[in-house]
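Students often ask why we bother predicting the structure of a whole assembly rather than each chain alone. The short answer is interfaces. A chain on its own may look different once its partners are present, and contacts between molecules only exist in the joint model. In this exercise we take two input lines together and write out one structure for the complete complex. Read the inputs first and try to guess which parts will touch.
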Amino acid sequence: MTQIKTKFINDPEQVTPELLEGYVLAYPDLVTLGGENIVLRTHPKDESKVAIVTLGGSGHEPALSGFVGEGMLDCSVVGDVFAAPGAQRVFQALQLMKREAGILLVVLNHSGDVMSANMACQLAERVGIKVKQLLTHDDISAGIDAPLNDRRGLAGCVPLFKILGAAAEEGKTIDELTEIGERFNKQVATLAVAMRSCTHPQNNAMISDLPEGIMEIGMGQHGEGGGRKPLVSADDTATEMVDLLCQQIKPVAGDQVMLIINKVGSTTQMELNIIFRKAYKELEAKGFKVGMGRIQELLTVQEQASFQMILAKLDEDHLDYLKNKRADTPYWTTIGK
Amino acid sequence: MTQIKTKFINDPEQVTPELLEGYVLAYPDLVTLGGENIVLRTHPKDESKVAIVTLGGSGHEPALSGFVGEGMLDCSVVGDVFAAPGAQRVFQALQLMKREAGILLVVLNHSGDVMSANMACQLAERVGIKVKQLLTHDDISAGIDAPLNDRRGLAGCVPLFKILGAAAEEGKTIDELTEIGERFNKQVATLAVAMRSCTHPQNNAMISDLPEGIMEIGMGQHGEGGGRKPLVSADDTATEMVDLLCQQIKPVAGDQVMLIINKVGSTTQMELNIIFRKAYKELEAKGFKVGMGRIQELLTVQEQASFQMILAKLDEDHLDYLKNKRADTPYWTTIGK
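Now the answer. The structure tokens for the assembled complex follow.
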């Protein structure tokens, strides 16, 4: 087996099952394994309510399985490092989650995940499982108003999980949930910036190559390229990103917005606080009200020095689901009002 | 000013005030600034209850200020990067927190912090402020049963904040809190392991120098030296650390223990899940019950590739305060029972 000299692992081929086993041992009151690489709630919600399910590769911890629990996800189907889980495993999860109320399958727009989801949904429909898909495509690095197919799903899925999970707990139907989620998807935009790459935990290769002093705006979650330029200050970086995100979601003065900085890897929280500070001030200067903020590791890319800025225009119901409704998952807890 | 080419910052001299300003803008419902580099709860608890206060340098985010909020800290006094805040600022915080019930000042054993705290307490006592100190010294890298003065305070302070904060909310007196805290301090031990160093955000210098393929067991939070050896597997690392920690806290079969992996920087959560898995199994094999687990960024050291393993023998009250009592802070939320 490949000798990995940069990480604390055992057999590179066993990274995914071992990390999931460790995860459910750490939070047994909240999460459990329901088959190979399928993470479920330890205390499932009532079957009369719609199940919220997602899928994606490992290596992005705490995403996506870190948000399984009351008020967010009911099930996360996990692939190997940076790899889609395949249709059979997704189908297996859909069988576990089968219910009259239906399953809402949230799919981040990456080709492998989309293919796994589409095939699994075909298999599920043949055996009478009610399932609808909700595709996320919050990345704006392909350009403002780029075709949806060209826009990847980034960490904007995490607040979406919070909104959908809270609405599902309230008993919203699958059509109502789809409307709530699609409305959020139209109003959310994410942009990533990276400054140092990271190594793949199974082959020790750098997933991209960024020289010191250079930043890349728009880098994808697996090293996909964006635009390179010399590193500028935190304030200039934040200002540029806010401007680009606002071009996409086009808020108007008086709008409530959500600003989340997703810590992707080795960029420190110290830096992200400084980025948040300037982004907040820029948004307030444009006349928007930041109704919800967060600076947290949500969806990482190994030790890449990078962050994602997530900006959303919030309707009243979105804000209420995000801030006031209870969530009890390992990596997102809201006490609720 | 020094040009920093590895981080998203502005003026290196302004890192601390800027990061704190960003922090309170992100979580205005929970935290606020009560003077230069003093973080307070936005909704303070009743003055009839003992205040829990701590102090320490910045650069370790989310620690220590990330745990200010209901059920944990009432106030965090922040120094510059890796530097103690100085006696005057600590004294200012003690004046803000002055109350009949008293103030419990939790001090991590680092010489600058200890000096700042001692001088501030002398100043406070002269003006009639009731304050007691609680020193933490969970690091075991100086050797098993080393004199307390030689043992630094590591991330074991964070579960201590949770315990003390919950007990203070219940209305425990300052003497009762001291007893609860000292009993936990005797039963907790922490060990750090590092694999790559990090740069100081104000002068761009590496804080230590670790060659690839080498790990250092016992590295301190500011690059202080431990013992170097070739990198071994995650399982072997976890086993060695559990053995050392158990030599210090000497649990006996049937004991409840707390196992927390503190993510220090660029070591990924994927790796830490794998470490947790083996550590948990080792503890269960020794006959202990892991009553409380967590894998999280608590106290970081910039982008150092490193983690700290925190092991504590838990009494029933400690377990109850940790798991069942409500906490509402930006980086530790417990819904409570």
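Check your guess against this: The CA atoms of residues 71 and 169 of chain B lie 6 Å apart.
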